[in-house]
Write a structure and sequence with these properties.
Layout lengths: L4 H17 L6 H21 L8 H23 L10 H20 L2 H13 L13 H14 L9 H16 L4 H21 L3 H28 L11 E2 L2 E2 H21 L3 H21 L2 H17 L7 H19 L11 H18 L23 H14 L8 H27 L1 H10 L1 H13 L9 H11 L17 H32 L3 E4 L3 E4 L16 H5 L2 H10 L3 H13 L4 H14 L7 H10 L12
Helix pairs in contact: 1-3, 1-6, 2-3, 2-4, 3-4, 3-5, 4-5, 5-6, 6-8, 6-20, 7-8, 8-19, 10-11, 10-12, 10-18, 10-19, 11-13, 12-18, 14-15, 14-16, 22-23, 24-25
């Protein structure tokens, strides 16, 4: 059985991806094209590698799975692509073709053992782009991690008890936030990030550097597409004030550009190959360009601070004058362009609003959810608890924020966000764990700090950056940060793994990991199926999740709410979606029973019930009393204004 285990695992993954490919989709033609692209590329590679088939069929099977996984990623990117850079999704088709060629070249150049570990990660790297709009990218990431773990030596030593405890804590949080779709995704990202860290920290430094360069290549691919969009849009002004750049929030675009630019500078320090230098020069130029057009003060100041500290710490004897001259020239040109922007870098008018939101998060958590917090997506719960403790001026600022942005009040601060997510007890345990690790491994930390001072500087600046924003858990930033963090573990990573004798715990952990990936896959498939099936009948809304699209009739299509095992798997968003468009009285009754008994936001339930009564004469007389009850659970009048 163990002899054929790799083949069984790879076939099981192919079967799971096949199911994911053939759920409801708004891009049925591209689904066929992407699947065919993967098979065609594999046939071409197989033709050129035909003399290596004997004895290497296992590696070829791994390569085939990697190609199909990459094609699945691009298939999902197409489904959630609102930018439309070129007609007929041509930009993503070109990117998909380019990336499978990259995977084929990597398979040709790297050793078979190295590719079996690195390949699955490369397949999902396009997910880590700021142009990513996948609703559930956590599934392909989990698949890639599972394959990399299985193909590496980590399948033997696996995780230490400390890492297992952290995983169990995160799984506990996952169970708590199971029904909250947004919180669920964030916790899975944390779990995947922890496993990604353990995987990378066992690699040689050269392989980690290679992965970092591939990450920058993904950034360039996405950046080229976005630049094409900018050049073809005659109405776009680079020096204008932007809240978002073609549906990409400027804070996300700027923060990722800051991290990419700083990482490129760090690699330039030790780079000796002229090809690498040209590549890194291009990456720095493009990332600084995006910093300029976003005019995100937080990210721009953070990048300038990193460059200044980098120059101060540079050893004059080992100083790379050519690279430093290029970096300083780029920064100088960027500064000149920023001076022409209509948005002033010294404008601090939004500071009072952010401070009001910080105090709101802090005191609301202490008063309403002190011990364990609101869960990992607190922003959709905090506005519906009592806000009587807020001064009138702060209340008005938050009220204005909700009106202006028509979205929940984001903390714009990593630390207040985390505090509201896990509460006082969770924060204490987290800080205790950090202090314990620092004390126990202080000698390792001191040695690491000396060897990796620029990475330490980057993380220090990032921690300051996140005091004014919350971009850490964005996919493109999070996995880049994890990749950089692994450079701080050059030779002391063995404490992360179990000794070989602890076979029972190793097998148990791997079984839990495999089960976790399967559950993520089933849940992801079910969610994608429901969302794509009913997408045209609803209009997304930040507060109400979905509004019924009255211009499109369901016809004879009967909407049935999830029940049984499906009811256990799906999130509240799926239940709200199906309940919003349900037409039969039985399904409507089931939805409102769920909403008032299980859904955490009663304000939304009353709002949906009022909408239902406005459309049905038999209960229209209850609209006024229902509006009164709505007011009790809606202190900021988010839904109340809509139902006046």
């Amino acid at each position: 059985m163990n002899r054929f285990l790799p083949e069984i695992i790879h076939c099981f993954v192919l079967f799971g991806l096949g199911i994911q490919f053939f759920v409801h989709s708004n891009q049925k033609n591209f689904r066929t094209d992407s699947f065919g692209l993967g098979i065609f590329t594999f046939i071409i590679v197989l033709f050129f590698k035909r003399h290596e088939i004997r004895g290497n069929y296992r590696y070829l099977l791994n390569f085939f799975v990697t190609l199909i996984l990459a094609c699945f990623v691009f298939f999902k990117l197409v489904e959630y692509d609102p930018i439309q850079i070129l007609p007929q999704k041509m930009a993503i088709k070109i990117a998909a073709l380019f990336w499978v060629i990259v995977l084929a070249l990597a398979y040709h150049k790297l050793s078979k053992e190295t590719y079996s570990i690195l390949g699955p990660i490369l397949a999902v790297l396009p997910v880590f782009s700021f142009t990513d709009f996948m609703a559930y990218p956590i599934f392909p990431i989990s698949i890639a991690l599972a394959l990399s773990f299985f193909n590496s030596k980590l399948f033997e030593p696996f995780l230490s008890k400390k890492i297992v405890l952290v995983l169990l804590a995160l799984l506990t949080l996952l169970v708590r936030d199971w029904s909250d779709d947004h919180a669920f995704v964030r916790i899975v990202i944390l779990i995947d990030g922890l496993l990604f860290f353990v995987l990378l920290v066992s690699w040689q430094k050269s392989l980690r550097v290679l992965l970092l360069k591939y990450h920058m290549l993904v950034f360039l691919v996405g950046a080229i597409g976005l630049v094409i969009k900018l050049l073809t849009d005659t109405g776009f002004k680079w020096n204008a004030y932007h809240e978002e750049v073609f549906l990409i929030p400027v804070s996300l675009l700027a923060s990722h550009s800051f991290l990419i630019a700083s990482s490129s500078v760090i690699l330039l320090i030790d780079s000796r190959n002229w090809k690498d230098k040209i590549f890194l020069y291009i990456v720095v130029s493009i990332s600084v360009f995006f910093l300029v057009i976003t005019v995100s003060r937080n990210s721009i100041v953070s990048f300038f601070a990193f460059i200044i500290i980098y120059l101060l710490l540079s050893n004059i004897k080992k100083f790379n004058f050519k690279s430093s001259f290029f970096i300083l020239s780029t920064v100088a040109v960027a500064l000149l362009f920023l001076l022409q922007s209509e948005k002033s870098l010294s404008d601090l008018s939004t500071s009072s609003v952010r401070m009001s939101i910080w105090s709101f998060y802090f005191f609301s958590t202490i008063i309403n959810k002190p011990l364990f917090g609101y869960g990992f997506y607190p922003e959709n719960k905090i506005p519906f608890f009592s806000a009587d403790f807020l001064p009138e001026s702060n209340f008005a600022m938050i009220h204005g924020y909700l009106d202006t942005f028509q979205g929940y009040p984001l903390a714009h601060n990593l630390y207040f966000q985390l505090f509201s997510s896990i509460g006082i007890l969770g924060s204490f345990l987290f800080l205790f764990s950090v202090v314990f690790i620092i004390i126990k491994y202080k000698n390792v930390i001191i040695d690491t700090t000396k060897e990796n001072k620029y990475i330490i500087v980057l993380f220090s600046v990032w921690l300051f950056h996140e005091f004014f924003d919350f971009n850490t858990l964005e996919l493109c930033n999070f996995f880049l940060l994890v990749s950089l963090f692994t450079f701080l573990f050059p030779s002391s990573y063995r404490f992360l793994f179990l000794p070989n004798r602890n076979l029972v715990l190793k097998k148990l952990v791997f079984f839990v990991f495999a089960l976790f990936v399967v559950i993520i896959g089933i849940r992801s498939s079910l969610h994608e199926h429901v969302f794509m099936k009913y997408a045209k009948y609803v209009t997304p809304d930040n507060f109400s999740e979905y509004h019924r699209n009255k211009n499109i009739e369901l016809g004879n299509h009967q909407v049935v709410l999830p029940s049984g095992f499906q009811n256990f798997l799906v999130s509240n968003r799926v239940r709200v979606l199906t309940g919003t468009i349900a037409t039969s009285d039985v399904e409507k009754q089931k939805f409102f029973a769920f909403c008032f008994n299980e859904y955490p936001n009663l304000a939304l339930c009353y709002s949906k019930l009022i909408d239902h009564c406005n459309e049905n004469q038999e209960c229209s007389e209850f609209v006024i009393p229902l509006s009164y009850f709505l007011r009790l659970y809606d202190p900021f009048s988010i839904y109340y204004r809509e139902n006046l």
